[in-house]
Write a structure and sequence with these properties.
The chain has helices at residues 28-40, 78-88; strands at 2-5, 11-18, 46-51, 73-76. It has 89 residues and is α/β, with parallel strands linked by helices. It has a four-stranded mixed β-sheet with strand order 1-2-3-4. The protein starts with a strand and ends with a helix.
């Protein structure tokens, strides 16, 4: 998924959405692969990785992931996704 806002303050946001069953945590390598995609797209401002499941509890402390949080990378688990959809509605 790619969203672009043009004009002053132009941003390009890319997203990855994974529909995984509860209890199936997103592997660190999936997030690292997404960061690699972000880094190879020179004009990406931010990435949002969304899952219906969840992330490992220490993913925000992982040295290859932590520097991107929260300004370049946002991790949205199933609970946060539900809250966001309610707010949009």
């Amino acid at each position: 998924m790619i969203a672009t806002k043009k004009g002053i303050g132009c941003v390009k946001i890319i997203g990855s959405v994974k529909a995984w069953a509860p209890g199936n945590l997103v592997p660190y390598d999936e997030v690292r692969a997404f960061i690699h995609v972000m880094n190879n797209e020179r004009d990406v401002s931010k990435g949002i990785f969304t899952t219906t499941s969840d992330f490992p509890s220490k993913i925000t402390e992982e040295p290859t992931i932590a520097p991107y949080l929260p300004t370049r990378l946002e991790l949205m688990n199933g609970e946060r996704l539900k809250q966001w959809l309610v707010e949009l509605g």
